[in-house]
Amino acid sequence: MIHEVNLEFEIAVSAGDVRIGITIGDGQIGGTALFLDGHPIGPRGAITDLRIGDGQDLAGRALLARTLVADVNEATNWTSVRYTMSTPAALPPMTASREVENDQEAVRYNTTFRFVRGGE
Amino acid sequence: MMRAARPIVAAPVGLLLLATTLSGQTAEPVTVADLRPPSTPAFVLLGVEPSSVTRPSSPRALAGWAFSQVSESSLIPRNIALEVTPYWLVSRPAFTFDDYFSEPIGGQRDILGTLATTVARSFALSTASAPRGVGTDTTTTGLAFGASTLVWPGRAPRGLMDQRRRLEAALGACAAVDDPLACYRETEALRDSIRTGIREPVGFVMQMSGGFSLDSPADDPGSARWRRAGVWISPAYRTEGRLDLILVGRYQRDRGETAETGTSELYDAGMRLSWRPSSAIALSAEALQRWVRGGPENTTIPRWGGLVEYRAREDMFVFYSFGRDFESPDREASPLFSSLGLSVGAGRKPAVSIPGAGVSPE
Fold it and tell me: What is each CA distance from A75 to A79, B49, B100, in whole angstroms?
């Protein structure tokens, strides 16, 4: 069984690189697919400090991060995802957690980052 | 307390077609594997194998379990079995896959950091209670508490990090589709292999356990007295080439059933070397030394044995074992043994015990 978690964050961006990193917690393993305005971008799998684009170009656009986390940790059924983003200033990490009912289930985190124009 | 006698070669899931024993044996063999630190020492010290163990996964579940025990009519609840790993009662977003091992990909971790992370994530508490018949008294409740931990985690086996990357890529592909369930199911074999890799690290690994048990006559906590205490430690080294070296040490102190029987102490030290040169052949040798202090007499008991195991078919094993077991109480039979056996099992790999040593912990 796969559980779905839907999240949405609003991110203020200005001129400069916007980057994202996605860390899987609780000793689990996960892989991510990224979509910018519905178009796939970046690699499928681990996302480590990936450049999304320039903040001025991203304002008004949406980044969807779909991360599927598998329960491989026999000590817990918790899963978690931590998003780190720089715009280019580093933002506080954003974390989501979900516990599955049974071993070997999975959770898909569907997280949308809406970029809005921020202060220069 | 000694266990009842049984044959030195055990084929629990199989049909023993041929077994020859050159000498009489009188008690269940204790192997190095039997002396490794148990994950639930409370159960071992109490001598129970509960059919159902409560393993709460959240503070609320733990509190609910505790409340249900308090509300029982008996002051000391009977027939409880609990194992809890405090670290995993809540989500741990900062604990990543790399934290399972001492040498994560892309760098080294400092010794204290590895030690702290390993002990924190593996430290487990166990408790159990059960009715205990002491002589004609049937009102005594046995109660035990224990703790276990992995002290040093070892390294990731070769190939595990590659499997991890493959699973990350596969999960990323699954995440992209609208209904990922069918895609996710196709990763099952890879996920199973990764779980095995987490359970079986290579390099240096060390585990410890300890605990104690009490007897409480007539459900009266005020009259409880200690019954048994034990400490286990096991450093081990496992290579990528299927060569394992396991050392074990155990100290156990037992109080007799009555004042006359007194207190006895057992010190065990042992090692096991095993080598699996191919998937069909396994060779192993082990030696144990036991020192018994107190009780009727002080004794020192050496044990050693070897085993050659050949997998003739997926479900058929031929094995030959030899060695020196403990001496028979009648002092007439030779402690040397040699046996040849054939095991046809329903499982993938029948558990064949190596005869090694004498007095059992329970």
Answer: 12, 21, 12
Residue B13: is it exposed, middle or buried by C-beta count within 10 angstroms (0-12/13-18/19+)? middle
Distance CA A74, CA A85 (A): 30
Residues of A in contact with B165 (CB under 8 A): 45-46
Does the beta-carbon distance from B173 to A40 stay under 8 Å? no
- Here the ipTM equals 0.93
Q: How far is A46 from chain B (nearest CA, A)?
A: 6
Cα B75 from Cα B80, distance rounded (Å): 13
| H or E element that contains B341 | strand B336-345
pLDDT digits (tens, 9 = 90+) for B308-338: 989 888 788 898 988 887 665 555 666 777 8
Q: Is A54 exposed, middle or buried (0-12, 13-18, 19+ CB in 10 A)?
A: middle
What's the pTM?
A: 0.80
Helix (H, G, I), strand (E, B) or coil at B307: strand
Phi, psi of B220, rounded to the nearest 5 degrees: -115, 105
Pairing mode of beta strands A2-13, A106-117: parallel
Residue B28 CB coordination number (10 Å): 22
- What is the per-residue burial (b if ≥16 Cβ within 10 Å, else e) of B102-133? bebeeeeeeeeebeebbbebbbbbbbbbbebe
Cβ partners under 8 Å of residue B128, min gap 6: B40, B42, B43, B46, B48, B50, B80, B81, B82, B143, B144
Judge whether B300 is closer than 8 Å to chain A, CB to CB. Answer: no
